[in-house]
Amino acid sequence: MSSPEELDLGLGLLDHQLGDSEGRRCGNVDDLELEGLSEGSPRVAAILVGPPVWRGRGRLGRLASRVARGQTVRIPWEEVDRIDSAVHLKKTAPELRLGRGDDRARRWVEWIPGS
Amino acid sequence: MKKILQIALGILAAIGGFVDIGDLVFNVEAGAKFGYQLLWVVVVGVVGIIVYSEMCGRVAAVSKRPVFDAIRERLGFGVGLGALISSEIVNLMTLAAEVGGLALVLQLLSGLPYRVLILVGIAGLAAVIWIAPFDWIERIFGYGGLALLVFAVGAVKLHPDWGSVSHGFVPHVSGSDQLVYAYFAVGLLGAAMTPYEVYFYSSGAVEEGWTPKDIGLNRANAMIGYGLGGFLSFALMITAGALFLPLGIEPELIGTVALGAQVPLGEIGLLLALVGILFAVGGAAIDTCFSGAYNLAQFFGWEWGKYRRPSGAPRFTLAWVGLLVLALLVIMSGIDPVLLTEYAVIFSVVALPLTYVPILLVANDRAYMGRYVNGRLANAFGLLYLLVILAVAVSAIPLMILTNQGQG
Protein backbone atom coordinates (compact mmCIF):
# COMPACT_ATOMS: atom_id res chain seq x y z
CA MET A 1 0.00 0.00 0.00
CA SER A 2 1.44 3.33 -1.00
CA SER A 3 -0.41 5.52 1.48
CA PRO A 4 -1.60 3.93 4.74
CA GLU A 5 -4.37 6.52 5.18
CA GLU A 6 -6.08 5.37 2.04
CA LEU A 7 -7.00 1.72 1.80
CA ASP A 8 -9.62 0.27 -0.51
CA LEU A 9 -11.18 -2.40 1.71
CA GLY A 10 -12.52 -4.36 -1.25
CA LEU A 11 -9.30 -4.43 -3.26
CA GLY A 12 -6.59 -3.89 -0.67
CA LEU A 13 -7.79 -5.94 2.27
CA LEU A 14 -10.53 -8.46 1.55
CA ASP A 15 -9.24 -11.86 0.36
CA HIS A 16 -5.62 -10.94 1.08
CA GLN A 17 -3.08 -13.29 2.64
CA LEU A 18 -2.61 -13.26 6.41
CA GLY A 19 0.89 -13.62 7.81
CA ASP A 20 1.68 -14.06 11.50
CA SER A 21 4.44 -12.37 13.50
CA GLU A 22 6.89 -15.08 12.39
CA GLY A 23 6.06 -14.73 8.70
CA ARG A 24 3.96 -17.88 8.58
CA ARG A 25 1.04 -17.90 6.12
CA CYS A 26 -2.09 -18.51 8.19
CA GLY A 27 -5.24 -17.99 6.15
CA ASN A 28 -6.86 -15.24 4.13
CA VAL A 29 -9.08 -12.31 5.02
CA ASP A 30 -12.37 -14.12 4.41
CA ASP A 31 -14.57 -11.24 5.59
CA LEU A 32 -14.53 -8.03 7.60
CA GLU A 33 -16.54 -7.01 10.64
CA LEU A 34 -17.54 -3.37 10.36
CA GLU A 35 -18.97 -1.24 13.15
CA GLY A 36 -20.35 2.25 13.51
CA LEU A 37 -22.23 2.01 10.21
CA SER A 38 -25.42 3.51 11.68
CA GLU A 39 -23.54 6.35 13.37
CA GLY A 40 -22.00 7.30 10.03
CA SER A 41 -18.42 6.64 11.13
CA PRO A 42 -17.75 3.11 9.93
CA ARG A 43 -14.57 1.36 10.95
CA VAL A 44 -13.17 -2.15 10.59
CA ALA A 45 -13.57 -3.87 13.95
CA ALA A 46 -12.15 -7.26 13.05
CA ILE A 47 -10.93 -9.62 10.36
CA LEU A 48 -12.96 -12.80 10.07
CA VAL A 49 -11.42 -16.09 8.96
CA GLY A 50 -12.89 -19.55 8.48
CA PRO A 51 -15.41 -21.61 6.49
CA PRO A 52 -18.58 -20.32 8.24
CA VAL A 53 -17.75 -16.82 6.95
CA TRP A 54 -17.75 -18.00 3.31
CA ARG A 55 -21.55 -18.19 3.54
CA GLY A 56 -21.70 -14.51 2.67
CA ARG A 57 -19.31 -14.82 -0.26
CA GLY A 58 -21.43 -15.68 -3.28
CA ARG A 59 -23.28 -18.82 -4.25
CA LEU A 60 -20.19 -21.02 -4.48
CA GLY A 61 -19.05 -19.61 -1.15
CA ARG A 62 -22.32 -20.67 0.49
CA LEU A 63 -21.87 -24.17 -0.92
CA ALA A 64 -18.22 -24.38 0.19
CA SER A 65 -19.19 -23.14 3.63
CA ARG A 66 -21.64 -26.01 3.97
CA VAL A 67 -19.08 -28.61 2.88
CA ALA A 68 -16.01 -27.40 4.80
CA ARG A 69 -15.51 -27.86 8.52
CA GLY A 70 -14.02 -25.29 10.84
CA GLN A 71 -14.87 -22.38 13.08
CA THR A 72 -14.83 -18.65 12.57
CA VAL A 73 -11.73 -16.98 13.93
CA ARG A 74 -12.12 -13.30 14.81
CA ILE A 75 -8.97 -11.20 14.68
CA PRO A 76 -9.55 -7.82 16.37
CA TRP A 77 -8.23 -4.96 14.25
CA GLU A 78 -5.78 -4.07 17.04
CA GLU A 79 -3.85 -7.28 16.22
CA VAL A 80 -2.97 -5.99 12.74
CA ASP A 81 0.65 -4.91 12.59
CA ARG A 82 0.93 -3.60 9.03
CA ILE A 83 -0.59 -4.05 5.58
CA ASP A 84 1.26 -4.35 2.32
CA SER A 85 0.20 -6.87 -0.32
CA ALA A 86 -0.46 -9.12 2.69
CA VAL A 87 -1.89 -8.44 6.14
CA HIS A 88 0.76 -8.92 8.82
CA LEU A 89 -0.36 -9.71 12.35
CA LYS A 90 1.26 -8.87 15.68
CA LYS A 91 1.05 -12.33 17.24
CA THR A 92 1.85 -15.90 16.18
CA ALA A 93 -0.74 -18.03 14.42
CA PRO A 94 -1.37 -20.39 17.40
CA GLU A 95 -1.90 -17.39 19.71
CA LEU A 96 -4.60 -16.14 17.36
CA ARG A 97 -6.01 -19.66 16.77
CA LEU A 98 -5.06 -19.47 13.09
CA GLY A 99 -3.40 -22.07 10.90
CA ARG A 100 -4.90 -24.96 12.82
CA GLY A 101 -5.61 -26.90 9.64
CA ASP A 102 -1.91 -26.92 8.84
CA ASP A 103 -1.09 -27.95 12.40
CA ARG A 104 -3.51 -30.88 12.17
CA ALA A 105 -2.17 -31.94 8.77
CA ARG A 106 1.41 -31.78 10.04
CA ARG A 107 0.80 -34.80 12.25
CA TRP A 108 -0.01 -36.84 9.15
CA VAL A 109 2.89 -35.57 7.08
CA GLU A 110 5.47 -35.98 9.83
CA TRP A 111 4.69 -39.66 9.80
CA ILE A 112 6.41 -39.97 6.37
CA PRO A 113 10.22 -40.41 6.52
CA GLY A 114 12.25 -37.46 5.31
CA SER A 115 9.55 -34.89 6.01
CA MET B 1 30.36 -13.78 -14.71
CA LYS B 2 28.82 -16.14 -12.21
CA LYS B 3 25.54 -14.28 -12.59
CA ILE B 4 25.62 -14.63 -16.38
CA LEU B 5 26.26 -18.34 -16.03
CA GLN B 6 23.37 -18.61 -13.60
CA ILE B 7 21.05 -16.80 -16.00
CA ALA B 8 22.21 -18.95 -18.91
CA LEU B 9 21.59 -22.12 -16.92
CA GLY B 10 18.14 -20.92 -15.92
CA ILE B 11 17.29 -20.13 -19.51
CA LEU B 12 18.50 -23.51 -20.72
CA ALA B 13 16.20 -25.13 -18.17
CA ALA B 14 13.32 -22.95 -19.34
CA ILE B 15 13.83 -23.97 -22.97
CA GLY B 16 13.90 -27.64 -22.10
CA GLY B 17 10.88 -27.17 -19.83
CA PHE B 18 8.73 -25.37 -22.38
CA VAL B 19 7.42 -28.37 -24.24
CA ASP B 20 4.86 -30.61 -22.58
CA ILE B 21 2.49 -33.26 -23.84
CA GLY B 22 0.03 -30.62 -25.06
CA ASP B 23 2.69 -29.01 -27.26
CA LEU B 24 3.85 -32.41 -28.51
CA VAL B 25 0.36 -33.51 -29.46
CA PHE B 26 -0.90 -30.29 -31.02
CA ASN B 27 2.29 -29.30 -32.87
CA VAL B 28 2.77 -32.73 -34.37
CA GLU B 29 -0.90 -33.25 -35.25
CA ALA B 30 -1.12 -29.74 -36.74
CA GLY B 31 2.03 -30.40 -38.79
CA ALA B 32 0.72 -33.74 -40.02
CA LYS B 33 -2.57 -32.19 -41.05
CA PHE B 34 -1.65 -28.72 -42.30
CA GLY B 35 2.09 -28.90 -42.93
CA TYR B 36 3.77 -25.62 -41.99
CA GLN B 37 0.64 -23.50 -42.31
CA LEU B 38 0.08 -23.06 -38.57
CA LEU B 39 3.62 -22.02 -37.60
CA TRP B 40 2.43 -18.43 -37.17
CA VAL B 41 -0.02 -19.50 -34.48
CA VAL B 42 2.88 -20.87 -32.44
CA VAL B 43 4.52 -17.43 -32.68
CA VAL B 44 1.31 -15.79 -31.46
CA GLY B 45 1.07 -18.26 -28.56
CA VAL B 46 4.71 -17.90 -27.55
CA VAL B 47 4.52 -14.09 -27.52
CA GLY B 48 1.36 -14.41 -25.39
CA ILE B 49 3.00 -16.60 -22.77
CA ILE B 50 6.01 -14.26 -22.71
CA VAL B 51 3.75 -11.21 -22.13
CA TYR B 52 1.82 -12.79 -19.27
CA SER B 53 4.75 -14.62 -17.67
CA GLU B 54 6.73 -11.41 -17.59
CA MET B 55 3.76 -9.68 -15.97
CA CYS B 56 3.14 -12.27 -13.28
CA GLY B 57 6.87 -12.67 -12.64
CA ARG B 58 7.09 -8.90 -12.08
CA VAL B 59 4.05 -8.96 -9.78
CA ALA B 60 5.66 -11.79 -7.81
CA ALA B 61 9.01 -9.96 -7.58
CA VAL B 62 7.47 -6.67 -6.43
CA SER B 63 4.56 -7.79 -4.23
CA LYS B 64 5.56 -11.38 -3.32
CA ARG B 65 2.08 -12.43 -4.45
CA PRO B 66 1.67 -15.40 -6.79
CA VAL B 67 -1.07 -15.64 -9.42
CA PHE B 68 -3.75 -17.35 -7.38
CA ASP B 69 -3.57 -14.74 -4.64
CA ALA B 70 -4.28 -12.14 -7.33
CA ILE B 71 -7.14 -14.23 -8.73
CA ARG B 72 -8.90 -14.43 -5.36
CA GLU B 73 -8.23 -10.78 -4.52
CA ARG B 74 -9.64 -9.57 -7.82
CA LEU B 75 -12.46 -12.03 -8.49
CA GLY B 76 -13.58 -12.39 -4.86
CA PHE B 77 -14.25 -15.63 -3.02
CA GLY B 78 -17.19 -16.93 -5.07
CA VAL B 79 -15.92 -16.42 -8.62
CA GLY B 80 -12.37 -17.12 -7.44
CA LEU B 81 -13.52 -20.48 -6.12
CA GLY B 82 -15.00 -21.19 -9.54
CA ALA B 83 -11.64 -20.35 -11.11
CA LEU B 84 -9.94 -22.62 -8.57
CA ILE B 85 -12.22 -25.58 -9.27
CA SER B 86 -11.87 -25.26 -13.05
CA SER B 87 -8.10 -24.87 -12.84
CA GLU B 88 -7.80 -27.89 -10.55
CA ILE B 89 -9.81 -30.02 -12.99
CA VAL B 90 -7.63 -28.93 -15.93
CA ASN B 91 -4.46 -29.41 -13.85
CA LEU B 92 -5.50 -32.93 -12.92
CA MET B 93 -6.36 -33.82 -16.53
CA THR B 94 -3.02 -32.44 -17.72
CA LEU B 95 -1.11 -34.19 -14.95
CA ALA B 96 -2.79 -37.51 -15.76
CA ALA B 97 -2.03 -37.03 -19.46
CA GLU B 98 1.64 -36.26 -18.75
CA VAL B 99 1.90 -39.36 -16.54
CA GLY B 100 0.32 -41.43 -19.31
CA GLY B 101 2.81 -39.99 -21.80
CA LEU B 102 5.63 -40.75 -19.41
CA ALA B 103 4.48 -44.37 -19.11
CA LEU B 104 4.17 -44.72 -22.90
CA VAL B 105 7.74 -43.52 -23.43
CA LEU B 106 9.00 -45.81 -20.66
CA GLN B 107 7.15 -48.64 -22.41
CA LEU B 108 8.90 -47.90 -25.72
CA LEU B 109 12.24 -47.85 -23.90
CA SER B 110 11.72 -50.94 -21.73
CA GLY B 111 8.97 -53.06 -23.25
CA LEU B 112 7.30 -53.57 -19.85
CA PRO B 113 3.49 -53.42 -19.49
CA TYR B 114 1.91 -49.94 -19.64
CA ARG B 115 0.08 -50.09 -16.31
CA VAL B 116 3.17 -51.23 -14.44
CA LEU B 117 5.04 -48.29 -15.92
CA ILE B 118 2.32 -45.86 -14.82
CA LEU B 119 3.03 -47.01 -11.26
CA VAL B 120 6.79 -46.76 -11.84
CA GLY B 121 6.36 -43.28 -13.29
CA ILE B 122 4.23 -42.00 -10.41
CA ALA B 123 6.58 -43.51 -7.83
CA GLY B 124 9.58 -41.97 -9.61
CA LEU B 125 7.95 -38.53 -9.73
CA ALA B 126 6.93 -38.70 -6.06
CA ALA B 127 10.47 -39.69 -5.07
CA VAL B 128 12.06 -36.88 -7.09
CA ILE B 129 9.66 -34.28 -5.63
CA TRP B 130 10.19 -35.57 -2.09
CA ILE B 131 13.99 -35.71 -2.26
CA ALA B 132 15.28 -33.13 -4.75
CA PRO B 133 15.37 -29.38 -4.05
CA PHE B 134 13.32 -27.04 -6.23
CA ASP B 135 16.12 -25.77 -8.48
CA TRP B 136 17.46 -29.29 -9.00
CA ILE B 137 14.09 -30.48 -10.25
CA GLU B 138 13.95 -27.53 -12.64
CA ARG B 139 17.45 -28.21 -13.93
CA ILE B 140 17.28 -32.00 -14.22
CA PHE B 141 14.10 -31.97 -16.28
CA GLY B 142 14.95 -28.78 -18.16
CA TYR B 143 18.32 -30.08 -19.35
CA GLY B 144 16.91 -33.51 -20.15
CA GLY B 145 14.21 -31.84 -22.23
CA LEU B 146 16.92 -30.21 -24.34
CA ALA B 147 17.33 -33.62 -26.01
CA LEU B 148 14.23 -32.57 -27.96
CA LEU B 149 16.58 -30.37 -30.00
CA VAL B 150 17.12 -33.56 -31.98
CA PHE B 151 13.89 -32.58 -33.73
CA ALA B 152 15.53 -29.38 -34.94
CA VAL B 153 18.33 -31.42 -36.52
CA GLY B 154 15.79 -33.87 -37.85
CA ALA B 155 13.69 -31.08 -39.35
CA VAL B 156 16.69 -29.75 -41.30
CA LYS B 157 17.74 -33.23 -42.41
CA LEU B 158 14.27 -33.88 -43.79
CA HIS B 159 14.89 -31.03 -46.27
CA PRO B 160 11.57 -29.26 -45.93
CA ASP B 161 10.58 -26.77 -48.59
CA TRP B 162 11.90 -23.69 -46.77
CA GLY B 163 9.76 -21.43 -48.96
CA SER B 164 6.60 -23.05 -47.61
CA VAL B 165 8.06 -23.02 -44.10
CA SER B 166 8.61 -19.27 -44.23
CA HIS B 167 5.15 -18.81 -45.71
CA GLY B 168 3.80 -20.64 -42.65
CA PHE B 169 5.04 -17.83 -40.42
CA VAL B 170 2.76 -15.34 -42.21
CA PRO B 171 -0.72 -15.32 -40.65
CA HIS B 172 -3.26 -16.65 -43.12
CA VAL B 173 -6.44 -18.69 -43.36
CA SER B 174 -6.37 -22.17 -44.82
CA GLY B 175 -7.91 -22.77 -48.25
CA SER B 176 -9.64 -25.94 -47.11
CA ASP B 177 -10.89 -27.50 -43.88
CA GLN B 178 -11.24 -24.10 -42.28
CA LEU B 179 -12.98 -25.30 -39.13
CA VAL B 180 -10.36 -27.97 -38.47
CA TYR B 181 -7.68 -25.35 -39.13
CA ALA B 182 -9.34 -23.08 -36.57
CA TYR B 183 -9.57 -25.96 -34.08
CA PHE B 184 -5.84 -26.59 -34.36
CA ALA B 185 -5.10 -22.86 -34.10
CA VAL B 186 -7.06 -22.75 -30.82
CA GLY B 187 -5.32 -25.90 -29.58
CA LEU B 188 -1.87 -24.56 -30.42
CA LEU B 189 -2.60 -21.30 -28.61
CA GLY B 190 -3.94 -23.22 -25.63
CA ALA B 191 -0.90 -25.50 -25.56
CA ALA B 192 1.51 -22.56 -25.67
CA MET B 193 -0.40 -20.43 -23.14
CA THR B 194 -1.38 -23.20 -20.68
CA PRO B 195 -2.28 -21.47 -17.41
CA TYR B 196 -0.32 -23.90 -15.24
CA GLU B 197 2.82 -22.35 -16.68
CA VAL B 198 2.03 -18.96 -15.14
CA TYR B 199 0.91 -20.47 -11.82
CA PHE B 200 4.16 -22.37 -11.64
CA TYR B 201 6.32 -19.53 -12.90
CA SER B 202 4.98 -16.95 -10.44
CA SER B 203 4.96 -19.31 -7.47
CA GLY B 204 8.53 -20.30 -8.34
CA ALA B 205 9.49 -16.62 -8.37
CA VAL B 206 8.04 -16.18 -4.87
CA GLU B 207 9.77 -19.38 -3.72
CA GLU B 208 13.11 -18.15 -4.99
CA GLY B 209 12.56 -14.85 -3.17
CA TRP B 210 12.72 -12.55 -6.19
CA THR B 211 12.82 -8.82 -5.43
CA PRO B 212 12.44 -5.80 -7.75
CA LYS B 213 16.17 -6.30 -8.49
CA ASP B 214 15.27 -9.48 -10.34
CA ILE B 215 12.94 -7.77 -12.81
CA GLY B 216 15.65 -7.83 -15.49
CA LEU B 217 16.25 -11.53 -14.83
CA ASN B 218 12.50 -12.11 -15.04
CA ARG B 219 12.31 -10.39 -18.41
CA ALA B 220 15.28 -12.34 -19.79
CA ASN B 221 13.92 -15.64 -18.47
CA ALA B 222 10.49 -15.07 -19.97
CA MET B 223 11.63 -13.75 -23.33
CA ILE B 224 14.60 -15.98 -24.06
CA GLY B 225 13.40 -19.10 -22.23
CA TYR B 226 9.92 -19.18 -23.72
CA GLY B 227 11.12 -17.70 -27.02
CA LEU B 228 13.63 -20.45 -27.60
CA GLY B 229 11.19 -22.98 -26.17
CA GLY B 230 8.91 -21.99 -29.03
CA PHE B 231 11.75 -22.97 -31.35
CA LEU B 232 11.23 -26.58 -30.23
CA SER B 233 7.57 -26.27 -31.18
CA PHE B 234 8.57 -25.10 -34.67
CA ALA B 235 10.93 -28.06 -35.00
CA LEU B 236 8.19 -30.51 -34.03
CA MET B 237 5.70 -29.02 -36.48
CA ILE B 238 8.17 -28.80 -39.35
CA THR B 239 9.27 -32.39 -38.78
CA ALA B 240 5.67 -33.56 -38.81
CA GLY B 241 4.89 -31.45 -41.88
CA ALA B 242 7.88 -32.78 -43.81
CA LEU B 243 7.46 -36.41 -42.79
CA PHE B 244 3.87 -37.27 -41.86
CA LEU B 245 1.86 -35.02 -44.18
CA PRO B 246 3.20 -36.47 -47.47
CA LEU B 247 2.67 -40.01 -46.15
CA GLY B 248 -0.81 -39.26 -44.86
CA ILE B 249 0.11 -40.40 -41.34
CA GLU B 250 -2.01 -39.05 -38.51
CA PRO B 251 0.14 -39.47 -35.41
CA GLU B 252 -2.09 -40.67 -32.62
CA LEU B 253 0.61 -42.28 -30.52
CA ILE B 254 3.53 -40.76 -28.67
CA GLY B 255 5.83 -43.24 -30.40
CA THR B 256 4.86 -41.83 -33.79
CA VAL B 257 6.15 -38.44 -32.66
CA ALA B 258 9.56 -39.99 -31.99
CA LEU B 259 9.57 -41.41 -35.53
CA GLY B 260 10.06 -37.83 -36.68
CA ALA B 261 13.61 -38.06 -35.37
CA GLN B 262 14.22 -41.71 -36.21
CA VAL B 263 13.55 -41.45 -39.93
CA PRO B 264 16.16 -38.77 -40.63
CA LEU B 265 18.66 -39.67 -37.88
CA GLY B 266 18.31 -43.39 -37.18
CA GLU B 267 18.48 -45.15 -33.82
CA ILE B 268 20.33 -42.36 -32.03
CA GLY B 269 17.69 -39.91 -33.20
CA LEU B 270 14.95 -42.15 -31.84
CA LEU B 271 16.71 -42.56 -28.52
CA LEU B 272 17.32 -38.83 -28.09
CA ALA B 273 13.73 -38.07 -29.04
CA LEU B 274 12.40 -40.55 -26.47
CA VAL B 275 14.72 -39.25 -23.75
CA GLY B 276 13.69 -35.67 -24.59
CA ILE B 277 10.00 -36.55 -24.44
CA LEU B 278 10.55 -38.46 -21.20
CA PHE B 279 12.11 -35.46 -19.46
CA ALA B 280 9.72 -32.97 -21.05
CA VAL B 281 6.56 -34.77 -19.92
CA GLY B 282 8.14 -35.80 -16.59
CA GLY B 283 9.06 -32.19 -15.83
CA ALA B 284 5.65 -30.97 -16.94
CA ALA B 285 4.02 -33.58 -14.69
CA ILE B 286 5.85 -32.12 -11.71
CA ASP B 287 4.97 -28.56 -12.78
CA THR B 288 1.26 -29.37 -13.10
CA CYS B 289 1.25 -31.31 -9.85
CA PHE B 290 2.83 -28.39 -8.01
CA SER B 291 0.58 -25.88 -9.74
CA GLY B 292 -2.44 -27.72 -8.43
CA ALA B 293 -1.05 -27.66 -4.89
CA TYR B 294 0.07 -24.01 -5.17
CA ASN B 295 -3.37 -22.88 -6.33
CA LEU B 296 -5.21 -24.68 -3.58
CA ALA B 297 -2.85 -23.43 -0.86
CA GLN B 298 -2.85 -19.86 -2.17
CA PHE B 299 -6.61 -19.68 -2.51
CA PHE B 300 -7.17 -20.82 1.08
CA GLY B 301 -4.16 -19.03 2.55
CA TRP B 302 -2.31 -22.18 3.67
CA GLU B 303 1.42 -22.32 4.12
CA TRP B 304 3.02 -23.44 0.86
CA GLY B 305 6.36 -23.92 -0.83
CA LYS B 306 8.75 -26.55 -2.00
CA TYR B 307 11.61 -24.66 -0.36
CA ARG B 308 10.20 -25.73 3.00
CA ARG B 309 10.47 -29.24 4.30
CA PRO B 310 7.29 -31.19 3.47
CA SER B 311 6.18 -30.83 7.12
CA GLY B 312 6.70 -27.05 6.95
CA ALA B 313 3.79 -26.77 4.51
CA PRO B 314 1.72 -29.82 5.45
CA ARG B 315 -1.54 -29.18 3.58
CA PHE B 316 0.43 -28.16 0.50
CA THR B 317 2.32 -31.45 0.75
CA LEU B 318 -0.89 -33.44 1.18
CA ALA B 319 -2.33 -31.56 -1.83
CA TRP B 320 0.39 -32.61 -4.26
CA VAL B 321 0.44 -36.16 -2.93
CA GLY B 322 -3.34 -36.27 -3.35
CA LEU B 323 -3.14 -34.92 -6.90
CA LEU B 324 -0.59 -37.59 -7.84
CA VAL B 325 -2.88 -40.29 -6.45
CA LEU B 326 -5.90 -38.89 -8.33
CA ALA B 327 -3.88 -38.68 -11.55
CA LEU B 328 -2.87 -42.31 -11.04
CA LEU B 329 -6.53 -43.33 -10.78
CA VAL B 330 -7.51 -41.31 -13.86
CA ILE B 331 -4.80 -42.69 -16.13
CA MET B 332 -5.13 -46.25 -14.78
CA SER B 333 -8.73 -46.19 -16.02
CA GLY B 334 -7.23 -46.81 -19.46
CA ILE B 335 -8.13 -43.44 -21.00
CA ASP B 336 -5.90 -42.58 -23.98
CA PRO B 337 -3.31 -39.97 -22.90
CA VAL B 338 -3.36 -38.22 -26.30
CA LEU B 339 -7.15 -37.86 -26.21
CA LEU B 340 -6.97 -36.68 -22.59
CA THR B 341 -4.33 -34.13 -23.59
CA GLU B 342 -6.60 -32.66 -26.23
CA TYR B 343 -9.48 -32.35 -23.76
CA ALA B 344 -7.19 -30.81 -21.16
CA VAL B 345 -5.84 -28.19 -23.58
CA ILE B 346 -9.26 -27.27 -24.96
CA PHE B 347 -10.81 -26.98 -21.48
CA SER B 348 -7.87 -24.92 -20.27
CA VAL B 349 -8.51 -22.49 -23.12
CA VAL B 350 -12.07 -21.96 -21.88
CA ALA B 351 -10.80 -21.02 -18.41
CA LEU B 352 -7.92 -18.84 -19.68
CA PRO B 353 -9.62 -15.45 -19.06
CA LEU B 354 -10.16 -16.29 -15.37
CA THR B 355 -6.39 -16.50 -14.98
CA TYR B 356 -5.17 -13.78 -17.30
CA VAL B 357 -7.65 -10.98 -16.49
CA PRO B 358 -6.66 -10.79 -12.79
CA ILE B 359 -2.95 -10.77 -13.72
CA LEU B 360 -3.49 -7.81 -16.03
CA LEU B 361 -5.54 -5.96 -13.37
CA VAL B 362 -3.00 -6.48 -10.60
CA ALA B 363 -0.05 -5.57 -12.83
CA ASN B 364 -1.81 -2.23 -13.40
CA ASP B 365 -2.57 -1.55 -9.73
CA ARG B 366 -0.29 1.19 -8.43
CA ALA B 367 -1.15 0.40 -4.81
CA TYR B 368 0.21 -3.07 -5.44
CA MET B 369 3.04 -2.44 -7.89
CA GLY B 370 4.24 1.09 -7.10
CA ARG B 371 6.48 2.30 -9.90
CA TYR B 372 6.69 -1.18 -11.39
CA VAL B 373 3.17 -1.08 -12.87
CA ASN B 374 2.70 -2.10 -16.49
CA GLY B 375 4.17 0.27 -19.04
CA ARG B 376 2.40 1.11 -22.29
CA LEU B 377 3.99 -1.77 -24.19
CA ALA B 378 3.01 -4.38 -21.61
CA ASN B 379 -0.55 -3.01 -21.55
CA ALA B 380 -0.87 -2.84 -25.33
CA PHE B 381 0.20 -6.48 -25.62
CA GLY B 382 -1.78 -7.44 -22.52
CA LEU B 383 -5.02 -6.01 -23.90
CA LEU B 384 -4.43 -7.40 -27.37
CA TYR B 385 -3.90 -10.85 -25.92
CA LEU B 386 -6.95 -10.47 -23.73
CA LEU B 387 -9.00 -10.13 -26.91
CA VAL B 388 -7.27 -13.17 -28.42
CA ILE B 389 -7.88 -15.16 -25.21
CA LEU B 390 -11.55 -14.20 -25.07
CA ALA B 391 -12.03 -15.14 -28.73
CA VAL B 392 -10.43 -18.56 -28.34
CA ALA B 393 -12.18 -19.19 -25.01
CA VAL B 394 -15.57 -18.65 -26.61
CA SER B 395 -14.83 -20.69 -29.73
CA ALA B 396 -12.89 -23.63 -28.22
CA ILE B 397 -15.76 -25.96 -27.26
CA PRO B 398 -17.92 -25.26 -30.36
CA LEU B 399 -14.90 -25.95 -32.58
CA MET B 400 -14.11 -29.15 -30.74
CA ILE B 401 -17.68 -30.39 -31.25
CA LEU B 402 -18.04 -29.19 -34.85
CA THR B 403 -14.75 -30.76 -35.97
CA ASN B 404 -15.08 -33.93 -33.89
CA GLN B 405 -11.80 -33.04 -32.15
CA GLY B 406 -10.04 -32.05 -35.34
CA GLN B 407 -11.00 -35.18 -37.25
CA GLY B 408 -12.98 -33.06 -39.72
SS element count, helices of chain B: 16
SSE string of chain A: HEEEEHEEEHH
Shape of chain B: globular
Helix/strand-derived category of chain B reads mainly alpha
Radius of gyration of chain B: 20 Å
| CATH domain fold name of chain A | SH3 type barrels
Mean pLDDT of chain A: 91
Within the largest sheet of chain A, what's the order of strands?
A: 2-1-7-6
What is the β-strand count of chain B? 0
The rounded distance between the terminal residues' Cα atoms of chain B is 54 Å
Number of domains of chain B: 1
Distance between the termini of chain A: 37 Å
The CATH architecture of chain B can be named as: Up-down Bundle
Biggest sheet of chain B, open or closed, and with what strands and sense?
none
Q: How much helical structure, as a percent, in the residues of chain A?
A: 25-40%
Poorly predicted parts of chain B: none
Pattern of helices and strands of chain B: HHHHHHHHHHHHHHHH
Give the largest interface. A-B, 39 and 38 residues
Class per helix and strand makeup of chain A: alpha+beta
Query: What would CATH call the class of chain B?
Result: Mainly Alpha
- The CATH topology of chain B is Amino acid/polyamine transporter I
Report on the architecture of this protein:
- The complex is a heterodimer of chains A (115) and B (408).
- Chain A is an alpha+beta fold and 115 residues long.
- Chain A has one domain (9-109): PRC-barrel domain (SH3 type barrels), CATH 2.30.30.240.
- Chain A is 25% helix and 26% strand.
- Chain A has helices spanning 9-13, 58-67, 93-96, 100-109, and strands spanning 17-19, 25-28, 31-35, 43-49, 73-76, 80-83, 87-89.
- In chain A, the strands form 2 sheets. Chain A has a 4-stranded mixed sheet, with no helix packed on it.
- The N and C termini of chain A lie far apart (37 Å).
- The relative contact order of chain A is 0.20.
- With 408 residues, chain B is mostly helical.
- Chain B has a single domain, classed as Amino acid/polyamine transporter I, CATH 1.20.1740.
- Helices cover 81% and strands 0% of the residues of chain B.
- Chain B has helices spanning 2-18, 21-34, 39-63, 67-110, 114-131, 134-145, 150-157, 162-168, 178-192, 195-207, 215-247, 254-300, 314-332, 337-363, 366-369, 376-402.
- Chain B is globular and about 55 Å long.
- The model of chain B has no long low-confidence stretch (mean pLDDT 93).
- Classes of the chains: A alpha+beta (115), B mainly alpha (408).
- Chains A and B meet through strand 2, helix 2 and helix 4 of A and helix 4, helix 12, helix 13 and helix 15 of B.
